[in-house]
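## retry 2 of 3
previous attempt timed out at serialization; input unchanged, resubmitting
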Amino acid sequence: MRNGPLPAPIFEGDGLRMDLGLDTTGAPRGPARLAGVIAGEHLSAATGVIPRKGWRHQVELQGMRRGPVGAHAWIVESSDPVGMFRSRRTSLDAEVALILPRFASLTRRPQTRELEASVAAPRAGSGTELFGVRQYRPGDSLRRIHWRSSARRGELVVREYEPPGVQTLGIFCDPQPGDAAVADQVARIAASEAWDCLRNGGRVMLWGPGLAPSTSSEARSLWAVLEWLARYPTTAASGEDVDPPQVSEAVAVTGGAPQQIVEALETVRRRGGAVRAWVVGDADLDVDAPVQHVGTEWPL
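## retry succeeded, writing output
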């Protein structure tokens, strides 16, 4: 369990401790009961009286799965002490937590635990390789405006270039991993690849056919990567194809052999970038690059 004055990140396999509670205004009320579903588990709690300072009941959920934790179908029933009246109210569905994928360094170097530290990297803008686009800022050269993206977004955006020598790793994820076990392993491997890149001062761009890609402003943030992968693949779906990012290196993490993933890797390779792939399972990925097959056990 994780304790502390501030909410701490929760990773798959961790426990989740939550407070169910009711507050009242004016005089104490009760009895009362509340019930609903959190992370697929039916929970309920009741009290004979709700004091002026409120009432809380703590619940613990073990072995959390990666992804959003939803609370739904919650009802609150209350009455007066002598049973003269009874009320029943429903609450709106809500997301109460986000469970992040586990990850580990895929190199032989020891893993640092200083996750809260900022990852230092040079700012984009002075190189020649196109890194991405960002919102126009006063003082930006008009020559850098990306007119096609500006028209699509309805606001001015400018090209952002990669400084010389900075690694930009594209992680290309399978949009249809097959089942939850494969999806979880794709997320873990992708998070681990991102961790190794970011701690060495690089940038990370996440992409998959039909998935909403990460943005250039998130390219140096481990937490943005983990949150994207926590929602992968369902809630990250954009419903439309977006071109793969232009990167200096690419790794595919897939449970199958999507043609668009293969084509994206080949595009990076033709431009002189290094490419490789992880395949969860036995699928044959037809790509001119090193391919490593793994199962769904973690750690690798």
